[in-house]
Amino acid sequence: MRILLVEDEPTLNLQIGRSLRAEGYIVEVAVNGRDALHLGNEEDFDAVVLDLGLPLLDGISVLKRWRANGRGMPVLILTARGDWHERVAGIDAGADDYLVKPFHMEELAARLRALIRRAAGQADNELRCGPLSLDLRGARVCLDGQPLTLTSHEFRVLAYLMQRRGQAVTRGELSEHVYPLDSERDSNTIEVFVGRLRKKLPSGMIETLRGLGYRMNDTP
Question: Which ranges of the chain have pLDDT less than 50?
């Protein structure tokens, strides 16, 4: 899963980024509203953590412009304690949830998981696809109740495919959700990860769609 973190306070930015990466997320960072607006318009994210008090362009304006441009990713806003009017303005602008500073990183992670689940139509932290189950919180995968050993990249590829079960997913999409923005992205390596996953899963669960990419199927 790929998160956009928009926070201009250096220490908090570092703490949140470190915590989310430890949870297995790919985290892209913006420290002002102008850069956040550009990233949110040009890149695909599974969720956004958005501080409202930003330089160059405030968070409310960023969020309004995203929504006006048809960007529908879940957004969790961060507000200062007591600024209830900011929370109301954020929700009215299109935010999906809010968190008041100071907060525990565990609560931030839990709220993000809930937003991503709802966006994918999932009721809990476990994704299911036929005999396969994937625990987003515990980063565990089981096949017919037996644990599977996956690398971090294999886990991210599988999680994204399961989030979009039954849909066509391009190699480019998978690459965006496996590698950070500033790294060298090679969609050919996605084929390698998919090939490894196929060796660990029942035949036909990951279908190749010629010219399109891949599709995760409930049953082969």
Answer: none
Dump the DSSP string for 14-58: HHHHHHHHHTT-EEEEESSHHHHHHHHHHS--SEEEEESS-SSS-
Q: Which two tokens stand for residue 76?
A: 């969790």
- Domain residues for 206? 126-216
Q: Are 42 and 95 within one domain?
A: yes
**Number of domains, the chain:** 2
Q: Rounded distance, CA 109 to CA 199, Å?
A: 32
| pTM of the model as a whole | 0.69
Tokens for 19, please give them. 């915590």
- Give CA–CA dist 123/114, Å, rounded: 8
Lateral strand order in the sheet of 26-30 = 26-30, 2-6, 47-51, 75-80, 97-101
DSSP-derived 3-state class of residue 79: strand
Q: How far apart, in whole angstroms, are the C-alpha atoms of residue 59 and residue 86?
A: 10
Q: pLDDT tens digits, residue range 119-153?
A: 766 656 778 888 899 887 778 899 988 999 988 88
**Contact 7/49 with Cβ under 8 angstroms?**
yes
State the pLDDT at residue 55.
95
The whole-angstrom separation of Cα 216 and Cα 220 is 9
Long-range contacts of residues 198-206, Cβ cutoff 8 Å, at least 24 apart: 200/143, 200/148, 200/150, 201/132, 201/143, 202/130, 202/131, 202/143, 205/129, 205/130, 205/132, 206/161
From CA 50, how far away is CA 21, in angstroms rounded? 17
CATH of the domain at 152: 1.10.10.10
